[in-house]
Design goal:
This protein is of the alpha+beta class. The protein is built from four helices and 17 strands. The strands form four sheets. Strands 3-9-8-5-6 form a five-stranded mixed β-sheet, with no helix packed on it. α1 packs antiparallel against α2.
Length: 285
């Protein structure tokens, strides 16, 4: 896999310093360690992903570009217990509605749905192993996109010896059962959000900007049928991330009225977390 320019530059700098003094070598090591994470681009279309088959582990930026006319997200699934991608697809095909997935299927966050034609990135630390890349969105016909073939395998290899630096966040959001705590308040413009899930179960954060004059109630009513023009614009976010995980999310949000939503089924009753009150209206100015 081709190294990003930033990582190539760091390696060249290390090579040039190999014969220099200790201070120069230490400076080169510091620059290499501070290199930004490599970016992996994932293109979503109706109904398939275009992405590398293998990526290196460690701090990584996943960039989702939605080239389809429908909404798409990336949900990463880490496949444990020595199971294969084929075991995963078989298990998904055999699952009954309302049943929990096998214990060896583990959520790992991915970029949540931007508007068609848009993109969303997240940065997270990827552990080595076998993964599935999945879209569970079911608009516009209530058939989850995974059932239309929107899944593909991904192998994550061990991280390189030189670790990439995590992004520097200026906003922290803590997710719990069933709320988001935002510090400081989001303002219009660009921010780097650090999301932490302190809950014992997975949560997502889907961001939608409400159309002028529309309310959260209008959005929820539309979500019951998907009929007519949506009263909100998808603005991305993160898909399901497990308890204890941390993810970095860059956003560029214009002023307006927004709603944060979590549609993940609850471990106790299978109801989406919005049914447990996990939605939050915020004003960004």
């Amino acid at each position: 896999m081709r190294l990003p320019v930033s990582r190539c530059a760091a390696l060249l700098l290390l090579a040039s310093c190999a014969g220099g003094d200790t201070q120069s070598a230490a400076s080169a090591d510091s620059l290499a360690a501070a290199a930004p994470p490599p970016t992996v681009t994932i293109i979503a279309r109706d109904f398939a992903f275009e992405a590398p088959d293998t990526v290196a582990g460690g701090m990584t930026t996943l960039r989702l570009v939605n080239e389809g006319p429908d909404l798409h997200h990336v949900q990463l699934i880490k496949i444990g217990d020595g199971k294969s991608y084929e075991d995963f697809t078989t298990a998904m095909g055999e699952m009954k509605p309302g049943t929990a997935p096998p214990s060896w299927i583990h959520d790992v966050a991915g970029p949540n749905s931007p508007v068609p034609g848009g993109e969303q990135s997240i940065t997270l630390a990827l552990e080595p192993g076998n993964y599935a890349m999945v879209c569970f969105i079911d608009t516009p016909d209530r058939v989850p996109h995974i059932m239309k073939g929107m899944t593909r395998p991904l192998v994550v290899t061990p991280a390189p010896a030189t670790a990439a630096a995590a992004p520097v966040a200026d906003v922290n959001i803590v997710m719990s059962d069933y709320a988001w705590e935002i510090t400081p308040a989001l303002t219009a413009g660009k921010h780097m959000i650090k999301l932490t899930n302190t809950a014992p179960q997975s949560h997502e954060m889907f961001i939608a900007q409400l159309a002028p004059g529309k309310t959260v109630a209008d959005f929820m009513k539309w979500a019951e049928t998907y009929e007519g023009p949506p009263p909100a614009t998808p603005m991305g976010g993160i898909s399901a991330m497990p308890g204890g995980a941390e993810v970095y999310l860059p956003v560029d949000l214009p002023a307006g009225e927004y709603v944060l939503l979590c549609f993940i089924p609850d471990k106790t009753d299978g109801q989406p977390h919005i049914a447990h009150g996990m939605m939050k209206a915020i004003t960004i100015s």
